[in-house]
Design a protein that fits this description.
By secondary structure, the protein is of the alpha+beta class. The chain contains 4 helices and 7 strands. The protein starts with a strand and ends with a helix.
Amino acid sequence: MQISASVKIIKIGYVVCLLAAIGIAGYLLAIHNQDEWMWALLAIPVLGALYLMVRHLRRRLVKLTVLDDRLRYEAGFLSKTTRTMELTKVQDVRVDQTVGQRMLNIGNLSLETAGESSHIVMPSVDRPHEAADRILEMSRGRHPGV
């Protein structure tokens, strides 16, 4: 099972940038604008799209993989951080959601482990309650007598 950050908000941002670019271009064409500097307004949605591309790339480079007996958290591209913890040590899985995240069925997934000061947060995960339940179910399946 692999968990990664949702790109729902990023996709909405791309649509907003595209609509803003179309709106600005349409407006300038409709008023028969002769001032070339007014076309510089198109830089606003272009810069917004570039910002979203960077965020999109960052989100795609962070993932949490649930293996048979352990969790592996990986982040980064050129310099990569990998954390591995035993699935049996997972003690608490928490889901935090804002109102906007609840509307999109995404949320932040926090994992706490026993005996260590280990804490992992996966931001903006799709269907976070299902992921949390699955991780706890797999963790309890590994604990004898639980």
